[in-house]
Design a protein that fits this description.
alpha/beta, 368 residues, 2 domains, four-stranded parallel beta sheet, Rossmann fold, homotetramer, elongated
């Protein structure tokens, strides 16, 4: 009898633990259920065009080929932001770009490969596409991925702990050097819409101010904190800024006034530096962590969570529970409907325990 | 008006995050409540003898003095296994050791120092002593500490994540070198009674066998796993052994037969090596991680948890809720009665999800 | 007989290993020679004004007080860029700033404290001041400090290895995430005048382009490299940019054209991104490592070198060899005249072995 | 015209940086010289039997296949201690093992594969075999590998810096936990014949005693050091023991008296613990780092050195300079005759600068 064939893919931005999910799903799928597992290249890209081979092309995964990937960052399957089959980007005859619907090709190729199911690991965008493909008859199981931990349907997402750890270690280092000087250090961390990374790293890394999207800031309380610290003999301050941190209405930062001045390059951390500089008599230094938060070997926590997700996804496939997404609830792995899953986002609760903890140990959020 | 004076102490074995608890409690106590906070040296030792000054003696903690400790391993207050005031070890005239009850001295010194409350950070032993001191009228709030995460009353304890991370990184390294050779690597990790560290690190570090106290092992299935892997072209295997891992009844390891042969030095990892060696035709190497798992900078997770514990302990003191121990339940900090807290231990559930995950990805526990 | 009193200070920018030099000098000075050692606060600041106590003030160092600092970043003595006694910054009556010569006060305080010698750890500026103070009769021994490793008189300076390690780990992480995407990652590292950090980290971190001050770059060869890699199926590239990297004459980067557009904030990495963006059809991401390269625990190499420097400085003082600076030559510690020492800077040799190695493995410097 | 074919192999024990040497040689060989490069499996094993395919078999290396290996521990080519073609282990008819000379097969297969040269990366054993194969007409270039840094012909070997770093971090961690307790921590590190790792890590990690093969120790001075520290209020001590550390003649450690008591398992660290325990009134804890020192991502220093070695090996091949081994001398890469290279070993000089430094900062070697 022919073996059951299951495909697996990764979509969206990079996230430590993607490979560990693949590892978990492939080991359980092959060793326990006797599947053949196809790794699809660059999200759905490898299903849109079976001849797609850039840089690798689809690959049959084995127990041995996934062995070394557990501890590695990135994803061996690649990922893509330009592989939505319902809005596939093509170049028109006149050189402009347009989008077409190539989802039928995905369905066709899925059948041609004799696949029984697809495990899709990805974020909001990937889950939205997954729902549409399910409607077209492809049996899909989802694994949630968001480094920002901003998903309501699961207690925690893999990759977040690693990102916070990298940011915390960066804060430890700038604190070392800040302590030796009279200086304000600004560290910009990830978090466009949710401030979980900034909040956790800020507490763990001993920040004096934490600026997050959920709590619009004014510069005055931050300047006051810096000055009060100096008056108390602490000559330096450390400020963590989420990339989505925003000033309160009516208070535009200096940087924003400069119309057209490379908005792409002028990040939230630099805007704070630009505005705060004239208000305090201290040197300012900005560090932008950027993508180093998305790379590197996943932490033990993220690996264990990712392996459990991979195992659970394989089990959902084996039991035929399609249209479901794995989730962590109260320490146990369970599943939710994909539709429900991507509906609700999680945000830092400005009145929650953790913000409260930060305030209690003397951190300002710039909203006082 | 005189300020409220609160004492804080750390007891039992070392654990990453002890300093972060002190940091959290002191910052909240001083900045929010205006306390004076006395750091007591070497658990109750500093209260048994106020002149005790070895190596440091008691110290008044300040916002500035706790600033740098957040990220540091160890405890600035020291700790001791020989400071139980109800069984205080003294040397008799004839040179032998005996124990006496000096708890009244603790009560007396507590009053002499004009203390209002005591925050006791420690494990089982410390909490047992705390209960007895509460009975003698000292208002105590407890903070649980066990690197093994074996406490039923809280979802997680600080230090555990760091210990697992260190063990996981060690496994990554031995796997690197094992892959290049035909070799079986044994890594002994902490866990006398509970195998959580071995289980988590084993999954995260890609171990082929995980031996824990909760699941007595036989050597045969382990030898079979090693041989099966070789037959499949995987020339190496990695075995994680908790220090409390035990062979099944009736199967004593070779090491145990050697009566008196330095039982203190012959750890669980070496016993497995000793027994497994003759059964397989491969080189064996043993690494004993020992105390490097207890030291070093705590992970972001442990720091945040520890700071929250410290804050919660300060709040319990301020609200006068004595006899309580802080706890984490479902992601929120709460408290439980100290009496209840230390009553129930947590063990790895041999039929729980995580053991199941390990088996599903092909790990043996030696009980098949 | 009164003990010999020796002062020690740290000046200039932060550098991993400063504390290890202090540790080495103090341990040898106290344990071997029986000195008393005074730690002077904020470079010469603590000698300009003995009452200066911000944040700490001068401190007598002991074997025990230096024990824990070996592994710590920063400097327990603080440092300052505004403590040149020959050009001491003061505020005039009209609110403007001016400078006065307070070097006589330093000499006076040196005598008042009954000091026999001064160990000055610092960079160019500190050594220049040291020479002037020597001329005024203060017996000084120098320890060179430059994280950029740009000093001709010593084979290597402490702190450099740690900075390169941090940059290398950052490159590892962005490479992880770059590999999963079609993307160009730019990492800006330290190096205003010398490109050693960029060169070493670039080779160690597998960069595709390395831009350093010693080799002015054009954007075209870099864009060609990115495109050639894509054509060969490697969809990403990693570029390391020293903060002092400069485009070749006649080719101003886009960023530089925008007169007045926050030159302080627009770093070399962002300028490259700005110019390269329009030339290639790929996403660009910039990471600015900034001060995280200056903080954190020094590497084993930097610690051993720093301890040796500290020991050698103490020995020079004991032997009365003032006006000398310790140096590493061919693996052995020796000394050079301070005057000679700071005269010659070291730069990356564009025709040297290491640049050659980088080119041989396919790295572009943008000058082809 | 057919491309030049060059083989590359790795032999002996594992060492961080092996992959980086392969990376350097392959990139230069392919990109600069246009070679085809064959990776030979398990040292000469893959040349003894071309059908050998356990676990991988020989593989043609490409620019892309070596891309990800620069930062990885281990060796993608495998290595073996049982592949000496002049003493190849075979199983006799009666089940016993014997050795035969299969070197002619290596020569034959070398020709069959149309190879022009062989790059052999390895230690003493590998270089001895290389010399014999050169005598049989195989053109070989050598790359030295010894994690212990005990080779006289080169200033430093790759892997050593990484091993010292891992040992130093372990010392940092046990020091953290030792400081909180009244305790003596023993850490056993690599070094059977040479104590460089123990010496460097001991200084960098703040050890109180360093025991190395080059300086036979007595237990009394070590016990005195521990007691003197206690008397001075420092309640803990850290001892680094190289695995080859030996007691002075006439003083056998307790452990050695126990005839037959698992000499394989009773390491140097445990022997010291066993003997020292009765002499001091303090808890003792032993950590055996073992193979975690050989694994993990190589440090920036080791990567750069390894890449330079790889490049230099490729250049020697291209220039036809066979029988040479690459070496680092005074910061520059050069080469020496293989014969000369493996002749002279390097040992810690008991009267050298570094031992002197250690003594000056108060470290005991147990020989006072």
């Amino acid at each position: 009898m022919a073996k059951k064939r299951v495909a697996i893919m990764t979509g969206g931005g990079d996230c430590p633990g993607l490979n560990a999910v693949i590892y978990g799903a492939v080991r359980v799928g092959i060793a326990r259920y006797g599947w053949e597992v196809l790794g699809v290249e660059d999200a759905t890209r490898g299903l849109i065009d079976l001849a797609y081979a850039f840089p690798h092309g689809n690959q049959w995964l084995t127990l041995e080929s996934v062995r070394p990937i557990l501890s590695r960052g990135g994803t061996i399957l690649g990922t893509s932001n330009r592989s939505d089959p319902f809005n596939f980007v093509v170049r028109n005859a006149d050189g402009t770009e347009g989008t077409i619907d190539v989802s039928d090709r995905v369905v066709e190729n899925f059948k041609k490969l004799d696949l029984s199911a697809l495990i899709s690991i990805g974020g909001d965008g990937s889950m939205r596409i997954a729902k549409l493909l399910i409607d077209k008859g492809i049996p899909i199981v989802g694994v949630p991925k968001t480094i920002d931990n901003d998903l309501a349907s699961t207690d925690q997402t893999f990759g977040f702990d690693t990102a916070v750890q990298i940011a915390t270690e960066a804060l430890d280092r700038v604190r070392d050097t800040a302590e030796s000087h009279d200086r304000v250090m600004i560290v910009e961390v990830m978090g466009r819409d949710a401030g979980f990374i900034a909040l956790h790293a800020g507490i763990a890394g001993g920040a004096d101010a934490i600026l997050i999207p959920e709590i619009p800031y004014r510069l005055e309380p931050i300047a006051e904190t810096v000055k009060a610290r100096r008056a108390a003999g602490q000559t330096y301050s450390v400020i963590v800024v989420a990339e989505g941190a925003k000033p309160k209405d009516g208070q535009a930062s200096v940087g924003e006034h400069k119309a057209g001045a490379m908005p792409r390059l002028m990040g939230a951390g630099m805007r704070v530096a630009d505005g705060l500089g004239p208000m305090i008599a201290a040197e300012l230094r900005v560090t932008v962590l950027g993508h180093i938060q998305r790379g590197g070997s996943p932490s033990n926590y993220d690996r264990v969570l990712a392996v459990r997700y991979g195992q659970a996804a394989a089990e959902l496939v084996e039991r035929g529970e399609f249209g479901r997404m794995v989730a962590l609830r109260g320490g146990e792995i369970t599943s939710v409907a994909i539709a429900e899953a991507s509906a609700a986002n999680k945000r830092v609760d400005p009145r929650g325990q953790l913000v409260s903890t930060a305030r209690a140990i003397g951190v300002t959020f710039g909203d006082e």
